[in-house]
Each structure stands twice: as C-alpha cells, then as structure tokens.
Fold this protein.
Amino acid sequence: MTSGVAQRQKVRIMAVRFHQHARERMAERGATEQDVTAVVGEGEQFEAKFSRAGFRRNFVFEKQWRGKYYKTKQVEAYAVREGEDWLVVTVIARYF
C-alpha cells in the first residue's frame, strides 16, 4: 500500500517526426505541429492500413476555417513506428 504520496516514474517521451508529405497536408488542412504532436501523444489510437497506426483527437476550435465557422476540429495522424519514435506520414483535419 502506498502512503498517498504520488510516486514519480521516469517516462520517455517519444519523438514525433514529420514526413514532408505530412507537412504539406498539415499546411493544406489547417493542422499544426502542436496539434499533431498532441494527437499522437494523447489521442485515441487505432489500427490503420499498411501496418500503420492512426491517432485521432477532437479539439475545441470555435473559429472560422475557409470562411465558415466551426466549433470542433478533428485531427487524424497516420504514422509508422521507427524505433521508439513515430514518423507521421499523413494528416487529415475535419471541421464540424
């Protein structure tokens, strides 16, 4: 039984790297590196085609994108594992 004092654990934070294709899609679709890093680190993970991992997270948006107001931005990142890290190969952003 613990004494109620939080125990500190060493946790390695995985690096998130971006393929050039992913960077181009992020720019087109309004997702930032900060968004995608949060998706990979904190979002829902699911299996994707071609042995890739998918990550998804909804963000409060409450602003305009391309002339229309949206409350939510959903970002999906598709990545492959490279050693201990993730290489993001493409990104999709949906607004609703």
Summary: The CA atoms of residues 49 and 78 lie 9 Å apart.
